[in-house]
Amino acid sequence: MVPKIAVAVLKLIAVVVIVVGSIFAFRICPPAGPWPMPPWCEGGIDVPNFDSGLHYEEYVYSDLPYITENYEATDRPLVMGMAMQDNWGKITGTGPNGNYITEDNRLYVDSSMERLSAINSELVLITDFATMDEDLNIFSQSRGGAAMIEQGEFNDIASSARANGLETMLITNIYELEPLARHQINCENITEDKIDGLFSEWREQVLYEAGKAESAGFDYFVINPRDIGFFFCEYDSYAVQYWPGIAEDVKKQFSGKIGMWGPSYYFSDYSFDTSDLDFIILDDGITEIVGGASEDVADIESKWTAWFERYRNARESAGDDKEYFAMILMPSYDGAMQGGWVEIFDLSTIYIEGSTENLVRDYKEQALVYEGFFRAVYNSDDPPVDGVISYAYWWTDNMYPDTFFVRNDIVHSIRGKDADHVFAKWGGVFA
Known about the structure:
The strands form 2 sheets. An 8-stranded parallel barrel has the order 1-4-6-7-9-10-11-12. Strands 2-3 form a two-stranded antiparallel sheet. Mean pLDDT is about 85; it is low at about 20-50 and about 350-355. The chain has helices spanning about 5-25, 110-120, 150-165, 180-185, 190-215, 235-240, 245-255, 265-270, 285-290, 295-320, 335-340, 365-380, 420-425, and strands spanning about 80-85, 90-95, 100-105, 125-130, 140, 165-175, 220, 225, 255-260, 280, 325-330, 385-395. About 35% of the residues lie in helices and about 15% in strands. It has a single domain, classed as TIM Barrel (Alpha-Beta Barrel). The protein is globular, with a radius of gyration of 23 Å. Helix 8 (about 265-270) links the parallel strand 9 (about 255-260) and strand 10.
């Protein structure tokens, strides 16, 4: 009689054989782990049974019927910047019939740089990725959609940008490798000891990123991370002590301009040495800025004009010897001025059933917010910003439902939407 343990082992072996056989038979990708990945599983989980294909059309400017005022060109400079959608590699999703690829943005670098040049952009912001585990270790890792950009790919991005008259900026997103990683450092759980450890980890990672940016010839480099941003509520006054040292170390590694991003209060309310910074990106929530405004462009302009005082306070505190950029994150759904930010993958028609039922695309509202911003700068005697960065420009002309499971029609990207034309128009107005 065969012992029970032997039977269990045989069953386990049979299951493993079936699983491994299925992986090779159906070209399935296993979860990322210490095991080697099959050759068709570049960057993690994907099965190429859906691909929206290459979609790129030459940009053609169009006037908008609800924005009729024209403005004469001015010699006032305003750097027109665009942040590309913060993903790299293949965007994948799990559907009812298996795994699907929507796009691989590595294929669209040249076409995207050409598009930015066509809409009068002068600067492109690229996002690289690092990850953090529950022990608060920070490191580079390649995962689908949030993959680290390889050095050769950085070189190609910078080369393509330069060929299209664009300067380049790099920022690094930290995302959580494990579910509790972000929870460990939220305002309820952060401690000074954790902050000390985080900055030790980040210093090593940011110097690695700066080295990549330097090798590729990037023009701007952001020294603090996004996604998991290092903002710690009442502990911010403790944490800011680390930025001058990091800035000094990055300066030794990166020969371009270095800077930070954050909400305007971070630079107006906390005192720390910013002398090594060349630029600051002011990133305030769109509902804070234009919340309560009607869809009247004069009303929206007045909201921006009032908010500029926040920018001036930050500029006065951090120093007037730097470039200041306003980052705009304005979605394109009806009511976005009041509803604000939407996370693109939380809007998946597959991941969260019915999550987009009540969100209707509204390109006019998004365009009016951009128009109001540019008018506020144009009409100001003393504009507090030297440039603008529009956040999350899509890498292709694909629009939902051609993106399959990603509702990019209602997120922050202005590509293919009315605000695209607003941006292009004002890029021709400012010097």
